[in-house]
Amino acid sequence: MRILIAEDDQVLADGLLRSLRSSGAAVDHVANGSEADTALITGHEFDLLILDLGLPKLHGLEVLRKLRGRGSALPVLILTAADGIEERVKGLDLGADDYMAKPFSLQELEARVRALTRRGMGGTSHTIRHGPLVYDQAGRVATLNDRMVELSARELGLLEVLLQRVGRLVSKEQLVEHLCEWGEEVSNNAIEVYIHRLRKKIEKGPVRIATVRGLGYCLEKIPH
Ligand code: CA
């Protein structure tokens, strides 16, 4: 999962980065609204935007307005001042999905991040089921036929991206985008190696990662 944080308070941003990275996400940070806008326009494959509203250069509400104006459905969690009720309402009206008023607990923020990124996965709990394979997003544990599967952080990240897109083709470039932060290098060859390892661990019974030659991978649907 890849998250963009737009927050000009460096101390708060550092806390968010640490907390979200420790829960396994790839996280990028910008400190003003115009950089946030640029990062969002250049089409990185973010799964979530955490957007402070009181940003220099371009107000958070403007960043949000422009994002939705481009037709993006990216989940957005806005951060507002404790007394910022009016801004909060404006943000929600402009298409923010959730908000947190400062100060907030990082634990609650992590739970809300999980809830938002689950959207579209068809689950309301923190587990994703795919036949005999169950992924617990909160605990970062996967089980197959009720047995724990030992996966590295990268393999878990990869599995999460594929589980969020069952039955859909995911290119190697998309996988790199969802797994890596700016400045992090993961080659297409490395992705092939991770996929190879993941397959050996989870391809039992009906669970199958198909290779679409030259295009990417697809976690195949399991017929009911
Ligand atoms: Ca601010």
Description:
- The structure is a single chain.
- The chain is an alpha/beta fold and 224 residues long.
- The chain has two domains: 2-120, Response regulator (Rossmann fold); 127-221, Winged helix-like DNA-binding domain superfamily/Winged helix DNA-binding domain (Arc Repressor Mutant, subunit A), CATH 1.10.10.
- It is 39% helix and 22% strand.
- It has helices at residues 10-22, 33-41, 60-69, 85-93, 106-118, 153-163, 172-179, 188-202, and strands at 2-6, 26-30, 48-52, 76-80, 98-101, 127-130, 133-136, 141-144, 147-149, 170-171, 209-212, 216-219.
- Helix 2 (33-41) packs parallel to helix 3.
- The longest helix is centred in the C-terminal third of the chain and has 15 residues, at 188-202.
- It is elongated.
- It binds calcium ion.
- Residues 8-9, 52, 54-55 line the site of calcium ion.
